Amino acid sequence: MVGVxxxxxxxxxxxxxxxxxxxxxxxxxxxxxxxxxxxLKQVVQLQPDVILMDIEMPGLNGIEAVKxxxxxxxxxxxxxxxxxxxNKHILDAICAGASGYLLKKHIxxxxxxxxxxxxxxxxxxxxxxxxxxIASLQEKSTENRKDYKLTNREKEILTHLSKGKSFKLIASxxxxxxxxxxxxxxxxxxxxxxxxxxxxxxxxxxxxIV
Length: 210
Fold this sequence. Notes:
This protein is an alpha/beta fold. It has two domains: 2-142, Response regulator (Rossmann fold); 152-206, Arc Repressor Mutant, subunit A, CATH 1.10.10.10. The protein has ten helices and five strands, in the order βαβαβαβαβαααααα. A five-stranded parallel beta sheet has the order 2-1-3-4-5, with helices on both faces. β1 (2-7), α1 (11-22) and β2 form a beta-alpha-beta unit. α2 (39-46) crosses α3. The longest helix has 18 residues, at 127-144. The model has no long low-confidence stretch (mean pLDDT 88).
């Protein structure tokens, strides 16, 4: 049996969800609430497998509730309930630790399957939201990336090094002398603050310099 808690301030929708879960054999309703102000205490006490969390609620909103819950429980599956599939709040909620989301207009048809799906490690999420998450992570990665002031030639040589090429082969492909390759590599080491080729390549790959 999968234990479920509902947080939804719309009384009619919450009652519909309660009835739906009550008549679904493999799902067990642990509690239903119109506010999430005491969600942390309730989750710790009831130990649910899945939480259905409305994004917009009076008092503590769904996103803040997710953050609080994730501070004490990393395993519980949290499905956000929302009206719009392009709502930026969905992205905020997922970044806060939500497992996926469901549109309220489709909830009666998809809820049991969505809960089973999320329990199998396949969170319900549209392609649009997935793209938003990827773009957000890429943006953060770019923001956090250090600028080592490498020239285009230095990046080119560092790319060659990461592919395991010798100084002689790099010189041949870049149409420069081996001594010039050594000078570039010396500059690369200084800028990356490393002392060996292995350190330089490792740093370049880990920080996506090449």
